[in-house]
Amino acid sequence: MDVENTQSQMRKGILEYCILSIIRRGEVYPTDILDEMRRSNLRILEGTLYPLLTRLKNAGMLSYRWVESNAGPPRKYFSLTPQGVQFHGSLQQTWNELAGAVHALTSISGRSTAPEAGEPS
Amino acid sequence: MNKILHINISGQVIAIEAPAYEALQAYLASLRRYFADEDGCEEIINDIEGRIAEVLGAKIAAGTPAVSVADVEEVAQAMGRPADFAREANAEAEGTARARGGAEGFTGGASTSASIPDAPPAGESKRMYRDTRDRVLGGVCSGIANYLGVDTTLVRALFALVTLGGFGLGILMYVALWSFLPERALDGAAVSRLYRDPDDRILGGVASGIARYLNREPKWVRMILIAPIAINAALALIAWVIFVFGGDVAPALISSSLIATIAFAYLVMWVVLPEATTPYEKLRMRGQPIDINEIKQRVQAGLAVARRHFEGAHDRLRRTSQAWQATPHPPHSGWHGTPDAFAATGGGGASESGANANAPYQDAEYVEAPRPFASAAERHPRDAGRDAGRARPSGLAHVAQVMVQVLLLAIAGAMAFTLFFALIALAVGAVALWPARAYLFSGAWQEALTWSTMGLFVFVPALGIVLWLFRRAVGARPSAALGWSFGGLWTLGWASAVLLAVSVARDVRAYEASTAAVAADVPMAGDVLSLVAKGAPPAYKGWWNDGEIEGWDLDDQSLRLAYVGVEFRKSADVDYHVQVAKYAAGQDTADAVRRAAGADYHAHWRGSTLELGSAYAIAPRDKFRGQRVEVIVEVPAGKRVRVDEALAALLAGPWNHGGSWGDDRELDDEGRGVGGQAAPRWRRHRTLVLAANTDYVMTDAGVLIMAPPPAGVASATVDAQRPAPQQ
């Protein structure tokens, strides 16, 4: 159980950064985010994503607009606010520092240390 | 056969099977609870609903006619349940307060806010909490159940049993736990399977619910519950038989306290266990995996009821929906959930699912949900009704209601029991006293009334109740025809009983005496009047009793009774006087006197011996009307009387004592009922118990007291005067 706890903490730490990074690349709606994260092997549950998006939006990091869809319910398309861009920048800096430090400490060269890919059990 | 609903999720209309709808609601409700304290809760829920709508819509588009429970499970699995969220986003320690929202305070580190209810952190040993989400009183039981991983209902039932059966010990435990356990909004991980089964119920469905929980047949549980009562009854029967046949030893009743315990436990379970009303709950109760075929069978059973609910609440819901549309929502176009828009799609939807739907439900019933779909304000009408009926927080009201039910049921049961055995007693009595018929009924009418009263008034309700129990036990539908016919017969029985009572009362309106003086054949001589009894007291030997019942006997010719009393009074003059007063009841004075006079009693006064019969005979034509014979002996002051053994025994006989005919009223000096009164005056037997062969002397005051026999003289006189002529 301890391992899972730590693993969970690790994932939790970079979750926001990853999501913000996805949104930074362009306007996306939640399903897109989920798909992309799954493709990258960093899975996340809807129940974790939506509250997170809402919190970020409430904090002013994100904004969204409604887009009607013929094939389903209307969708929220999220994009970063300038504040969010700035926020993302800070996180990116932190991440780079962290990654460098971890690389140095663990002597794993080359690839970025992707966190454990796995569904929460 | 399936029931299909059409629901509106985030503007999208989806066809969904009824149990799946329930499951979806439950899932959304759990999500709502989970995010309840979160800022922006509504928005989160809306977003999730939108996502669900997307997924389900994709399924429908892919060819599924209607969303099934399996689909909902899949969605819930994929999107995660609150427990999963908690694990993903757990806090390192409880109560870690992190500022939420706000640009400055938003650390972006742990994406946890103290407001999200969470499971205990993975890695720590699980602690026991009180569950604030699933509480009847304080959530103690559900917290314990969550910790142990057992059924919540089971813990509640055990607590209730310990409390009520253990002199309130459970209350102490509960309060202690209430104060010590910290609160936490748990997600109800303890799956509750213990329900009462409303479909298979004799009383409250407790036995079948327990049986389902244990995966056994209900009849076994019932047999275990009934066993002590049956054992008790059997033992009582054996004891009675033994007793009747003269035995002394009878098997003791060993299981009466067990009966009380079981009955009490049953009542507790009735109160604590919830009823499994919806098909989904029923499936959970039976512990079966959610299977489509099973659901089909279950839903079929509930179709008609649900339809009634829908039709009633449909209007209410539409009104709510229209009110809700005033709330600002993201703009939707093209997917309005209005009735008109729906009708266009609903018809299509219906025909799609027509293959599965019931024929009567061609126009597929839909629930128009105000947007967003599962907000707290809007409720599935059936859910609203059900939840209102099962309002958990008002547990006390429920308890009181059930207790009243059980009390009434117990009273009815006791009445039925009593009636049943009254019937048996009457039947036995009737058979035993068959020969007495001739002496009882004053006419054919009365006899007929008696039989009809016995049959309709006593037998019918007893039989009816037994039959009702039997039908319930085998699960037969309550039959209105049976109920009406039994009720009608019993009403006739009432009428018959009343008529019979009136008739009998009329028959005994008057209670009069026919008095005749007895003259001495041979003049009295001496100072002592000896009273002797002639003949032995009658005794009756029936087929059912061992020995003889003394005091009466009857055959075709006559009914002989030994209710003879002797009263001694002070004579007005210096002579002895003897009178025989025969009492009887009758419709009026003349009738009473006639019946009284008809009693045949032997009283023969010869010299200083008064011979009295041991019994008086009543002819069949006079009927039994409470006849009595009183011999009034007037003794001059200073003179004596004595009785012999036989007469003393007669007077002291058990049949002569114990307040015979009724209440003790005042009598006038002659011992007759005061004339002109309608109510008969039953005379309470007040014969002195006299010792045999002992002289009694009459005092001036009119009281008889014992006197020592005068030495020699009186005995000789007595001996000489005791020829006892036979008649």
Summarize the structure.
The complex is a heterodimer of chains A (121) and B (727). Chain A has 121 residues and is mainly α.
Tell me what you see in this structure.
The complex is a heterodimer of chains A (121) and B (727). Chain A has helices spanning 2-25, 30-39, 46-58, 82-106; strands at 62-67, 75-80. Chain A is mainly alpha-helical. A two-stranded antiparallel ribbon of chain A has the order 1-2. In chain A, a hairpin with a 7-residue loop joins strand 1 (62-67) and strand 2. In chain A, helix 1 packs across helix 4 (82-106). Chain B is elongated, with a radius of gyration of 43 Å. In chain B, strand 8 and strand 9 form a beta hairpin. With 727 residues, chain B is α/β, with parallel strands linked by helices. In chain B, helix 8 crosses helix 9 (218-244) and helix 10 (256-272) runs antiparallel to helix 15. In chain B, 33% of the residues are buried. The model of chain B is unreliable at 91-125, 329-393, 658-668, 670-685 and 713-727 (pLDDT under 50). The longest helix of chain B has 38 residues, at 395-432. Chain B contains 21 helices and 20 strands. At the A-B interface, helix 1, helix 3 and helix 4 of A face helix 2 and helix 4 of B.
